[in-house]
Request: fold
Amino acid sequence: MKNRSLVSINDFSKEEILQIVDLAAKFEENPNQELLKNKVIATLFFEPSTRTRLSFDTAINRLGGRIIGFSDASSSSTTKGETLKDTIRMVSNYADLIVMRHPLEGSARYADEESRVPIINAGDGANQHPTQTLLDLYSIKKTQGTLENLNIFMVGDLKYGRTVHSLLQAMSHFNPVFNFISPDELRMPDEYKFWLDSKGITFYEHTEFTDILSRADILYMTRVQQERFADPLEYEKVKNIYILKNSMLKNTKDNLRILHPLPRVNEINTDVDANPKAYYFQQAENGVYARMAIIASILGLV
Amino acid sequence: MTAKKELRVSAIQHGTVIDHIPANKLFKVISILKLDRCKNLITFGTNLGSNRFGKKAIVKVADKFFDEKDLNKIALVAPEARFNVIKDYDVVEKREVELPNEIVGIAKCFNPKCITNTEAMATKFSLVVSKEIALKCHYCEKITTKEHLVIL
Ligand SMILES: [Zn+2]
Reply:
């Protein structure tokens, strides 16, 4: 992985994904290591994302690295009309690694072509957010002890949710069974279903929570957003169907864990938070270790 | 019949004849092959005859022989085009165009949020093989289908 960018989760093989996941566990055991001493990491956030930026900043700080960059485009030269290419060319002369978040899709791939140093994609519009996927995988491995043969439930906006698409692609290395629960308007797109078929992976589709939830190992919740619906009445009809309540977890497996990429609005009732099966806050913490593992691997420091 | 049609655009001694271009794509073909900057003798005719694809256009470029790679670039706009290589007024080679697996700088990505629609850069697609032409953007990973296809 040394000197290779992480633009899309598909850039990493199954073995490389497993390496990152195992390494994340080692960083969790021993989070303060001076591996990035004398390294400069640029964090370029062309759109604000406090959560992701803090996670990267924490990871870099724990590894003893220094950070340059900006946290939203209004404080960057982009507002003066500078092209992405020029910004990347300049910054790649200053830093050893660039972490980049950008509202336009494909920007990270393009930045990688123009940069002298590796790029970590911290989200390019609705396209890819591979470090989120790797922290999801680490969370799954940590809570289930394995990534193999799990029954993964994905709930909510399965049409536009980039986190579920990337997770689906990454988990497909590990012989999963998928259950998709979503309103008709927000079903998993055909291209992903065809792709699963081509890999011989079993999946089921549902429009509401059913007693089948008792089979789940992982329940991956996402938000159903009103702006995704052309017809506001359709949203009104479905908005309360995809809310997880503690009472619905009664007959679920002991090893079930509930994940959510956060921020949550109302799709997980707060009465779930105290349930030991709720895992979304630890999941966010796992992001720091996963990002430490990604940075250290790409810089060839481990 | 064919001979009569050909005579509407004068014959060339050596060079390349590009036939079966849809008439409304003639200027796209000229621009993709950069013929507007070519110094050779070029003759063309358009709105000629008609076949099952409607009116066609024909271009004759004297003393020029194209690389297969360049010729295939026009496959997106003129999938039925034929190339005839002419030597001493004779057709010595006939070729059809074939869609290349990688298409650089010809088509526009239909995704308005794609970086290629904001930054001054070349687009890049890979060909998705299915019933219809579909292009997968190398950058945003979205698929532009034939109905949304715009040639730059
Ligand atoms: Zn694109």
Remarks:
- Chain A touches chain B through 18 residues (CB under 8 Å).
- Chain A is about 35% helix and 15% strand.
